[in-house]
Amino acid sequence: MDPLWKQQQTPAVPSAPYEPGAHRDVVIVGAGLTGLCTGVLLALDGFDVAVVEAGDVAARASGSNTGKVSLLQGSTLSTIRAHHPASLVKAYVEANRAGQEWLLAFADAAGVDRTVHTAYSYAQHADQAGTVHAEHDVAREAGLPARIALHSETDDLPFPIARAVALDGQTALDPDTLTRALAAAFVAAGGRLHTGVRVTGLSMPPRPVLRTSAGEMTAEHVVLATGIPIVDRGLTFAKVSGHRSYCVSFRTPGDVPTGLFLSVDGPTRSLRPVAQDGANLIVGGNGHPVGRALSERALVDDLIVWTQRHFPGAEPTHRWSAQDYTSHNLIPFVGALPRGFGRVRFATGYAKWGLTNAPWAALRLAAEIRGQAREELPQWMRQIGTRLTMPGDIGRGLIENAKIAGAAARGWFEAERQPVPVPRPAEGEGVVAQRGGRPVAVSTVGGRTRAVSAVCSHLGGVVAWNDAECTWDCPLHASRFAPDGTRIEGPACRDLPTLPRRADG
Fold first, then answer.
1. Alpha helix (H) residue ranges in 342-432
2. 414 located within any domain
3. Which of 224, 340, 489, 500 is the most exposed place for a label (fewest CB within 10 A)?
């Protein structure tokens, strides 16, 4: 399930040789949008900066999203406003505007192609028109020139729209090309990019020590730009939830809508035009908490069926997914990590809007590392940095953590019901059973059957099989593992142990 963006033969950004024992001003973990934007800003300021990445540039969400750079984000603003003051919503909008402006200025200077569109947040059903109007009102209150879309804009669309709020002048681009341009700019500014080096731990104090697969490295400052922090200081994993959503690109025989569309009601549908590798339309949606879907493959198939119903003759060209983290109040966590002694910073909780949230997060992280005085910071940066926990936030957090507790109990209970030996899973399938009271994960991929521990190496949840991507996904805090147990992403730092085949097979 490689993204449409990964099909082009983009030259790889050279990886610098890793130097065990090296000391840097700043070490950034993760070569996605957040890490590379932060790296570019600090390298241009003259800091000695290294970016360390376990895989390749834009290997996860940064290279797998839909490429929308929009300040209109479904029902995000009205959802925040329901439990928070207008000043916080305005700060969120201004932060995203600052991020959007910085990113687009960089894209233009780097020669990254982009197109300009009207963004629409729309209701698929008439009973959700009120959500559209609420989003319009809050967007206007926060300073965005949003408008209720004219019927002439939506009546002829081939998919159902009951009502829509519109924001002109938004952008779509290729996120993989953008992120690789950031990597090239980072290296050109003197930064050191180390790909294929996995960070496995962090020690404090007196200064941060990063443990990696290639040896230790020390730094004055560390930035964890890994989607979710890979260390548990501050218990961030309990304050955000991980979601997977899906995208399919299509070749359609006719014209496609020119806007950027996102439904405010379910099942989620996201659409944008594209002109790449034979595709002219991307349809996304069907998001769900990681590890808690009955069948991820069925969710992808549902997107295809929906698209072919409304765009007759549409042929899928590529299908893929991405993982995002959402804070319980939709405001990203950006800044100093608790118990990091002011030397470790992080950013997470973009709620699928990383193309605008990541750049402003980088602006704030860079300002803190420079040591800028609070009074020198823009108002939005000061406002959004003062986190207010409201009763509604606590309620959503309690509900999510109750769901996590339920998922943990179900995983262990279901595993205990089926002892080994089990029939060999069919190709592309996986099953969880128990051996000696311990859950075992057995899968067959590429003709090879493997058994690994089914207990997540983070906090002991029992992993579930993802039948769309052939991975083991933890339903507690969204760690994911390959069939052989290799850690892919999430808060877990260790692989799932491989289990040897018994003598009786």
1. 354-370, 379-384, 391-416
2. yes
3. 500
Same domain, 466 and 486: yes
Residues 384, 426: one domain?
Answer: no
What percent of the chain shows pLDDT beyond 90? 81
343 in the same domain as 401: no
Q: β-strands 448-453, 438-445: how paired?
A: antiparallel
Residue 338 lies in a domain: yes
**50/194 Cα distance (integer angstroms):** 7
Contact 263, 302 (CB under 8 A): no
Q: Which two tokens stand for residue 21?
A: 């024992």
Instruction: Kindly provide the b/e burial profile for residues 47-74, where b requires at least 16 CB atoms within 10 angstroms of the residue's own CB.
Output: bbbbbbbbebbbbbbbbbbbbbbbbbbb
H or E, element range at 221: strand 217-224
pLDDT in tens, 232-247: 877 888 889 999 999 9
* DSSP states of 227-276: SS-SS-GGGGGGTEEEEEEEEEEEE-SS----SEEEESSSSPEEEEEEEE
- Report the number of distinct structural domains present in the chain: 2
**Are residues 259 and 281 in contact, defined by beta-carbon separation less than 8 angstroms?**
no
Residues 351 and 491 in one domain: no
Residue 227 lies in a domain: yes
Q: Are 397 and 477 in a shared domain?
A: yes
**Is residue 31 one of the residues assigned to a domain?**
yes
Cβ pair 250, 315 in contact under 8 A: yes
Statement to judge: residues 358 and 402 lie in one domain: no
Locus of tokens 């953590």: 401
420: alpha, beta or left? (left if phi > 0; alpha if psi -120 to 50): beta
Distances (CA, A) of 70 to 186, 286, 331, 370, 498: 24, 20, 16, 29, 43
Average pLDDT over the chain, rounded to an integer: 93
Residue range 22-41, pLDDT digits in tens? 999 999 999 999 999 999 99
What residues does 79 pair with on adjacent strands?
none
Distance CA 481, CA 490 (A): 9
For residue 49, the one-letter residue type is V
| Alpha carbon 445 to its chain's center | 26
Does position 397 have pLDDT exceeding 90, yes or no?
A: no
Do 489 and 379 reside in the same domain of the chain?
no
Name the helix (H) or strand (E) containing 42.
helix 33-44
pLDDT higher than threshold 50 for residue 505: no
pLDDT value at position 394?
Answer: 62
SS3 389: coil
Q: pTM of whole model > 0.85?
A: yes
368 lies in which domain range? 11-63+177-238+330-390
Render pLDDT for 425-449 as a digit per residue (tens, 0 to 9): 999 999 999 888 899 999 999 999 9
Contact by Cβ (8 Å): 245, 322:
yes
Residues 347 and 438 both lie in one domain: no
Of the residues 347, 375, 390, which one is the last residue of a structural domain?
Answer: 390
- By the 10 Å C-beta count (0-12 exposed, 13-18 middle, 19+ buried), 438 is classed as middle
